[in-house]
Write a structure and sequence with these properties.
Number of domains: 4
Strand order of the largest sheet: 1-2-3-4-19-16-15-12
Number of strands: 55
Radius of gyration: 28 Å
Shape: globular
CATH topology of the largest domain: TIM Barrel
Largest sheet: 8 strands, antiparallel
CATH architecture of the largest domain: Alpha-Beta Barrel
Strand content: 25-35%
Distance between the termini: 80 Å
Length: 850
C-alpha cells in the first residue's frame, strides 16, 4: 500500500490540477498564507514563498519548515528589485495553491509541494518533478529537479567554452584560473547562474542567486531532467516570463542592473601584450600604430611596468618617465590602461604603501587561525584584500589616487581575481579562509571562502569601479575584470581570459561572447589572436576581422607568443587587418548607439539570432542552432563567419526571413536559395510565391580578406568619416545608410563620450523612419532631437542602397535638393545631403537596378 501511495503522489506531481477521485491520496496538513503579492506554503517539511516582483518576474524562496526564511540579502539583485511587488490574484483550489499575474501563473501541488510556472498562454515554463530535495542539516545543500521539455534549449551561464546551447551538458559554478583552457573544460573564470530557456515558442529566464559552488545539469545525467544543485546556501531563485529573449534580458537587467556605460574610446581598437618590458618598447608600439595609420584608442600595460610585480608600483629603471609617457600617448589620442592585480606583496618595513596601510587598517583576508592569509602570486608571498567589507573596498579605491589623478591612467585591469593562487592544486585559497561581511543590507558576520569565492572577483571589480568614481565623479570608470558573478556588469567590462591561439578558440569565441552578453556582460571581448601559444598569420587575420564586430576589440598575447600587432606577418595581412579596424571606426556612431542601448536596457550589442528572430525555427529549435557561427551585431547587421574558419571549403549561410543586403557592396542579396520555415514544425521547403515567412540560404566561398556581413532590410545605419581615434573629430556630415525594407527605422545616439552628463539630458538621440510608396519612391522622416547635447555633425548624407536612378528628385521640408550616385566604402547608392534637423525627405522615382 505504501508503494501505491508513493506512485499516486508521483503522478499527482505531474498532474496537479486533475479531479479528485475516491481513494486518491489526501493532501497532508499544510498552511497557506496569501499576501497582496505572494503565497507562502508550509507543508511536507518545507517553507515555500513565491512573490510577484512584477507581472513577469517571480521570486521563489524555499527553506526547511522551521518558520523562517534565510536572510534577505544579495550581492547580485538590486534592493529595489527585491523589494518590489505587484498585486497577484489567488488561484487556490482543492489540489493546488498559487496565484496569477497578467504574465504568469504559479501553482504549488498540495500533495507533493511541487511548483509549476506557466506563462499567460498556458505554456509550461518550469515544472518541478517532486519537491525540492534538502540535504540533512548537518550536510546542507539542495537539489531542484525540473521537467526538461522535449523541445527545450538553454543559453547562458557566462563564459562557458562550447556551443551556444547548453542542452545535454552539465556545468559547475566556481571561478577558476584556466590558462589555455580547452573546449568542454569547466569551470572557467566567471560564474553567472542565469540562463534563458526556450520551449514551445516561449523564452524565459532563470536566475539562481546562490554564491556557493552550484551545478546545472541540462539533461546530461538524466535526459528528461533539468537539475540545479548547490553544496550549501539558500534556495533563492527568480523566474522571468519573457515571452521573447529581449524581454528576458531587460527583466534580468532590472533585477541585477544594466551594464555600466563605457566611455566612447572603449569601442576603439586597443593594443596590449604581456611582453612590452620597457618604456621604449611601449612607446615604439604607439608610434608604430600612428605611423601605419592603424586607428587606435588605447595601449594596455601588463605586469611588465611594475616594480617586482607589485601592484600600484612602477619600475623606475625600465619606465623612468612613466608620467610623461602617458601624457605623450594622450597627445596622440591614445589612452593608457594599467593592470592592478589584487594580491598585495607581503613586504613589511619596505615602504610599500598598499601593504603598510592595509595592515594598519586590518584589510586582509584571514586564514582559519585568524592570521592574515599569505600565499604566492606574482610578487611572491602576498596578501588578499577582504572585499566583502565596504571599508576595505573604500581603502582599495584610494590606492588608485596617484595613478588616476596624477599620472592620468585612463583605465584599469583587475586580473587574477578568482582569486588565483600559485603552487596549490585548487589554484585558489583554502576553502576555510575567513572573510568578514560588513556590507549594507547584510547582517555583519564572518563567512568561509566556500561562500565568498564566486563573488570575490566581482567585489574586487566593484571596489576599483567605485574607487575611481569617488576619485573622479564626473568620469565613467574603465575597469576590466577576469572573474565575476551575476550583477558584476554594473562595474565594467570583462574578457574571455587566457584563451589559446587556435582555430577552435577563434570559432568558439563567438558563442562565448554571446553567452557573456546574455549574462549581462555586453562589454566583453576575446584576446585577438589568442593569449597562449603562437598564432599563424591567417588565424590572426581572421581573428582581427571577427573581433571588429565584438564589443571590446583588444589584441593581447603572453610573453611567449609571437608578435600579434596589426603589422605582424607583412604588408598584405596588415592591410586586411587595418581595413577591418577602419570599418569599426566608421561604424562608431552605430556601435555607440548600441552601447547606450545596452547600458539602458541590458540588451547586448552582440546577439544570438534568436534575440532578433525569436519565431524563426529550424527543426523546432532557434535558428542559431542550425546556422553555424552567425550572430547579430545589433538589430541591423548579421555577421556570418565560417563555423570552421580554418577550412577553405565553402559553407552555408542562412539569412532569416526578410530582405537582406550585402554590407560590403550595399546591394540586395539575390543569389540565395529561398527557404520556408514551416512554423513550429521547423521543416524547410522551397518558398512559394508570396510567402512572407521566407528565409534564404546561400553558399559562401571563404576568402582571407573577406568576412560575410549582411544588412537587414529596413535598417538605417549611421556611419562617420574615418578617424584615427575617438579623440579626433570627424569631418563632414554623418552618413545615414538606408536599406529599404519593411519596418524601416534606425536611430543615432551621441553624448560627450566620457562623463555622466547624459543623466542630466546632455545627450543627443534622433530616430529615423523610412517608407517606400507604391511608385518606388522613398520618404525618410527625421524625428525630433532628444536631449540637449550638440554632436559633431550638422548635416546628414543620406545614402539609399539598392537604388541607382541618377535622374531622381529629392525634397527636404519642401526644398529641392540635388541627388547623386555616391560611391562609399560600403557600396554605392543614391545620395542626398540634408541638414541635421527634424523633417521629411522625399526621394521620387528611385527605380531599382535591373
Amino acid at each position: 500500500m505504501h508503494g501505491q501511495s508513493r506512485l499516486l503522489a508521483l503522478l499527482a506531481a505531474f498532474m496537479p490540477w486533475g479531479p479528485v477521485h475516491a481513494g486518491s491520496p489526501q493532501p497532508p496538513a499544510s498552511t497557506v498564507t496569501h499576501t497582496q503579492a505572494s503565497v507562502e506554503w508550509q507543508g511536507n517539511g518545507l517553507l515555500l514563498e513565491v512573490t510577484a516582483l512584477r507581472d513577469d518576474i517571480v521570486r521563489i524562496r524555499i527553506a526547511p519548515n522551521s518558520g523562517h526564511l534565510p536572510e534577505d540579502a544579495s550581492w547580485a539583485v538590486l534592493p529595489t528589485a527585491r523589494q518590489a511587488h505587484v498585486c497577484a490574484t489567488p488561484t487556490d483550489d482543492a489540489h493546488a495553491v498559487g496565484f496569477a499575474t497578467r504574465s504568469l501563473k504559479i501553482s504549488i501541488n498540495r500533495l507533493t509541494s511541487a511548483l509549476s510556472i506557466t506563462d499567460d498562454k498556458g505554456t509550461p515554463l518550469l515544472t518541478d518533478r517532486g519537491a525540492p530535495a534538502l540535504l540533512p542539516s548537518d550536510r546542507h545543500g539542495f537539489t531542484l529537479i525540473k521537467t526538461l521539455p522535449d523541445d527545450g534549449h538553454f543559453f547562458g551561464l557566462g563564459d562557458k567554452f562550447g556551443p551556444l546551447d547548453r542542452l545535454g551538458k552539465s556545468y559547475a559554478m566556481w571561478n577558476t584560473d584556466s590558462y589555455g583552457y580547452r573546449e568542454g573544460q569547466d569551470p572557467l573564470y566567471k560564474d553567472i547562474p542565469f540562463f534563458i530557456g526556450y520551449t514551445h515558442h516561449a523564452y524565459y529566464g532563470v536566475f539562481v542567486d546562490n554564491t556557493w559552488r552550484t551545478f546545472f545539469d541540462f539533461g546530461h545525467e538524466d535526459p528528461s531532467a533539468l537539475q540545479i544543485k548547490a553544496e550549501d546556501g539558500p534556495i533563492d531563485y527568480y523566474v522571468m516570463a519573457g515571452p521573447d529573449a529581449k524581454s528576458v534580458e531587460q527583466q534580468y537587467a532590472w533585477l541585477t542592473g544594466p551594464p555600466a556605460m563605457q566611455p566612447e574610446w572603449m569601442l576603439g581598437f586597443q593594443q596590449s601584450r604581456w611582453g612590452y618590458p620597457t618604456e621604449t618598447a611601449l612607446r615604439d608600439i604607439g608610434a608604430h600604430l600612428r605611423a601605419d595609420h592603424v586607428p587606435t584608442d588605447a595601449v594596455w600595460m601588463d605586469i611588465d611596468y611594475q616594480d617586482r610585480f607589485r601592484p600600484f608600483t612602477v619600475d623606475p629603471a625600465t619606465f623612468a618617465h612613466f608620467h610623461q609617457m602617458i601624457a605623450d600617448f594622450a597627445k596622440t589620442g591614445i589612452h593608457t590602461v594599467a593592470i592592478t592585480d589584487l594580491h598585495i606583496a607581503d613586504a613589511p618595513h619596505q615602504g610599500y604603501a598598499p601593504y603598510d596601510s592595509g595592515m594598519a587598517q586590518d584589510r586582509f583576508v584571514k586564514d582559519a587561525s585568524g592570521r592574515p592569509y599569505i600565499a604566492p602570486v606574482w610578487p611572491g608571498p602576498s596578501l588578499f584584500p577582504d572585499f566583502t567589507q565596504a571599508a576595505t573596498r573604500a581603502w582599495w579605491g584610494q590606492l588608485y589616487r596617484h595613478f588616476a589623478l596624477e599620472d592620468g591612467i585612463a583605465g584599469f585591469w583587475n586580473d587574477m581575481d578568482e582569486p588565483a593562487v600559485f603552487d596549490t592544486p585548487t589554484k585558489t585559497m583554502p576553502l576555510n579562509t575567513v572573510h568578514r561581511i560588513d556590507e549594507p543590507g547584510f547582517v555583519p558576520r564572518t563567512a568561509s571562502h566556500r561562500e565568498i569565492h564566486n563573488i570575490y572577483g566581482m567585489q574586487n571589480h566593484r571596489a576599483t569601479y567605485e574607487g575611481l568614481l569617488a576619485l573622479k565623479p564626473d568620469a565613467r570608470p574603465v575597469v576590466m575584470t577576469r572573474a565575476s558573478y551575476a550583477g558584476g556588469q554594473r562595474y565594467g567590462v570583462t574578457w574571455t581570459g587566457d584563451n589559446a591561439s587556435t582555430w577552435n578558440h577563434l570559432a568558439l569565441s563567438v558563442p562565448m561572447l554571446e553567452s557573456l552578453g546574455l549574462g549581462g556582460f555586453t562589454f566583453s571581448g576575446a584576446d585577438i589572436g589568442g593569449f597562449a601559444g603562437v598564432t599563424s598569420p591567417d588565424l590572426l587575420t581572421r581573428w582581427y576581422e571577427i573581433a571588429m564586430f565584438t564589443p571590446i576589440a583588444r589584441s593581447h598575447a603572453d610573453k611567449d607568443s609571437g608578435p600579434q600587432e596589426p603589422w605582424a606577418d607583412g604588408r598584405m595581412h596588415e592591410d586586411i587587418r587595418r581595413h577591418f579596424i577602419e570599418t569599426r571606426y566608421r561604424l562608431l556612431p552605430y556601435n555607440y548607439t548600441l552601447a547606450e542601448e545596452a547600458s539602458r536596457t541590458g540588451i547586448p550589442m552582440m546577439r544570438p539570432l534568436f534575440m532578433e528572430f525569436p519565431d524563426t525555427l529550424i527543426h523546432k529549435a532557434p535558428m542559431d542552432l542550425a546556422s553555424g557561427n552567425e550572430f547579430m551585431w545589433g538589430a541591423a547587421l548579421l555577421v556570418a563567419p565560417s563555423p570552421a574558419p580554418e577550412s577553405p571549403a565553402p559553407y552555408r549561410v542562412t539569412l532569416p526571413p526578410g530582405q537582406w543586403y550585402d554590407y560590403w557592396t550595399g546591394q540586395p542579396v539575390t543569389t540565395a536559395q529561398a527557404l520556408v520555415l514551416k512554423g513550429a514544425a521547423g521543416s524547410i521547403a522551397r518558398a512559394e510565391e508570396g510567402d512572407t515567412n521566407t528565409a534564404h540560404e546561400l553558399k559562401v566561398a571563404p576568402r582571407l580578406d573577406q568576412l560575410p556581413v549582411y544588412v537587414r532590410g529596413g535598417s538605417i545605419i549611421p556611419q562617420q568619416p574615418l578617424v584615427q581615434s575617438t579623440m579626433q573629430t570627424p569631418g563632414g556630415p554623418l552618413t545615414l545608410h538606408v536599406y529599404p525594407g519593411g519596418n524601416c527605422q534606425g536611430s543615432v545616439y551621441a553624448d560627450d563620450g566620457q562623463s555622466f552628463d547624459f543623466r542630466k539630458q546632455a545627450y543627443n538621440r534622433v530616430r529615423f523612419r523610412c517608407q517606400i510608396d507604391q511608385k518606388g519612391g522613398l520618404s525618410l522622416t527625421v524625428g525630433p532631437t532628444e536631449g540637449t547635447f550638440q554632436p559633431w555633425w550638422h548635416a546628414y548624407a543620406v545614402v539609399i542602397h539598392g537604388r541607382n536612378a541618377p535622374h531622381a528628385q529629392a525634397t527636404f521640408n519642401g526644398t529641392t535638393l540635388p541627388v547623386s550616385v555616391a560611391d562609399t566604402p560600403i557600396g554605392h547608392g543614391l545620395m542626398v545631403t540634408i541638414p541635421a534637423t527634424e523633417g521629411s525627405l522625399q526621394v521620387n522615382q528611385p527605380i531599382p537596378e535591373k
